Amino acid sequence: MQLESGVSLKPYNTFGLPAVAQTLFRITSDADVRRVVDHPTHGLAPKFILGGGSNIVLTRDMPQLVLKIEVMGRRIVEERADAWILEAGAGENWHDFVMWSLAQGCPGLENLALIPGTVGAAPVQNIGAYGLELQDRFESLDAVDLVTGRSVTLRAAICAFGYRDSEFKHSLAGRSVITRVRFRLPKPWRPVLGYLELERKVHDTGITAPSPQQIADWVIAIRRAKLPDPAQIGNAGSFFKNPIVTPDQCRDIIGRDPHVVHYPMADGTFKLAAGWLIDACGWKGKSIGRAGVYERQALVLVNRGDAIGAEVVTLAKAIQESVYGRFGIRLEPEPVVL
Ligand SMILES: Cc1cc2nc3c(=O)[nH]c(=O)nc-3n(C[C@H](O)[C@H](O)[C@H](O)COP(=O)(O)OP(=O)(O)OC[C@H]3O[C@@H](n4cnc5c(N)ncnc54)[C@H](O)[C@@H]3O)c2cc1C
After folding, report:
1. Which residues pair with 51 in a beta bridge?
2. Candidates 13, 54, 142, 163: which one to mutate for ligand 1, based on the most atoms within 8 Å of Cβ?
3. What tens-digit pLDDT sequence spans the chain (338 residues)?
4. Torsion of CA 57, 58, 59, 65, to 10 degrees
5. Does 235 contact ligand 1 (Cβ within 6 A)?
6. Helix or strand or coil: residue 45?
7. Cis link prior to 188 (omega < 30° from 0)?
């Protein structure tokens, strides 16, 4: 366990926002977490668990202990008749893990290629993209409790996955340090191509039976065309969740604007495209201070250069107010605002 003081977090968050961690521990094993829990001065201090910093908005310096998760390692645990079981340390880069799994001949995660961040944070918000969510490929995870120091293995039922949601955002928030995640990749592999942009790729290329690698390449190309690369322009991906509304609410919103983009869900509710709502309020390309709305995708807020967290929050609030004023919908931020 390494302890560092006065650490700049600017390189550790993809928005590139300035903040300093008073104390930072690099966690490379379950035993490291227990050392923190048993520490005479730091054991009881408030803590923040940091992965790749791609889903956070830092608005101030961090007096709490920052636990930077750097548990590494990846392996094929088991090949069963009906699935491959893969495992990765929580500090592994998510995209590298997806590409590694494909190189091992274990397909199933290709739709989730190029999502930034770490393997350990993926269950926290049940990452999802292009018709697939982490919960569709989840087997179990290992976590260490920050109060008791106890290691546990958790299955999906305890994790309570939902749309960009899990128990790690509720009763286990800031309490459980995820150290390893296992994935169940079903055999035989079946492509997931229901998402509109992937259907379009099949149509445009004429490749009707794409390989897992082909799908990963398509996903990567689609993402690169529409999302800003955090290495070039600071951002945290989609800033707001797509709102889920009742049929009555959906009718009310369609009454306000018949063009509103909405998708029927299996449970009878409707999902609205938050980016469309923001665009309809005229925000695309606009800025407040040094924080702005990305020109190519209104759902993404960006750092136009040396922005501070307060500017991002001011912009986000202004967007929330105008969407509420026009559509009566309260947009909920996806990243954690600290
Ligand atoms: C350009 C871009 C595109 C994106 N696209 C998508 C997308 O398509 N789909 C999607 O779902 N998300 C997307 N995201 C959001 C982000 O990539 C994911 O939420 C990712 O899982 C965050 O990982 P991280 O390691 O950076 O987490 P961080 O930002 O470091 O942390 C996020 C939260 O998880 C907690 N946490 C982190 N690690 C652990 C751990 N080991 N144990 C317990 N808690 C932990 C933190 O305390 C915090 O609350 C995108 C982000 C960017 C910048």
Report:
1. none
2. 54
3. 668 999 999 999 999 999 999 999 999 999 999 999 999 988 989 999 999 999 999 999 999 999 999 999 999 999 999 999 999 999 999 999 999 999 999 999 999 999 999 999 999 999 999 999 999 999 999 999 999 999 999 999 999 999 899 999 999 999 999 999 999 999 999 999 999 999 999 999 999 999 999 999 999 999 999 999 999 999 999 999 999 999 999 999 898 889 988 889 989 999 999 999 999 999 999 999 999 999 999 999 999 999 999 999 999 999 999 999 999 999 999 999 99
4. 140
5. yes
6. coil
7. yes
Atom of ligand 1 nearest to the CA of 12: 30
Distance in Å, CA 52 to ligand 1 centroid: 7
Q: Could you identify the atom of ligand 1 that is nearest to the CA of residue 129? A: 8
Q: Is 289 helix (H, G, I), strand (E, B) or coil?
A: coil
Pocket test for ligand 1, best of 10, 15, 27, 55 (most atoms within 8 A of CB): 55
Q: Nearest CA to 15 among 239, 221, 226? A: 239
Distance 54 CA to ligand 1 centre (A): 5
CA–centroid distance, residue 248 to ligand 1 (Å): 33
Tell me if 275 CB under 6 Å of ligand 1.
no
Q: Is 140 a catalytic residue?
A: no
50 by DSSP, 3-state: which? strand
Q: Is 52 in the pocket of ligand 1 (CB under 6 A)?
A: yes
Beta bridge partners of 93: 118
Contact 47, 67 (CB under 8 A): yes
Angle at 181 between CA 112 and CA 33, to 5 degrees: 130
Q: Residue 16 Cα, ligand 1 centroid: separation in angstroms?
A: 15
The length of the chain, given as a count of residues: 338
Q: How many CB atoms lie within 10 A of CB 150?
A: 11
Q: Is 334 a catalytic residue?
A: yes
Q: Provide the angle, in degrees to the nearest 10, between the axes of the packed helices 196-205 and 212-226.
A: 110
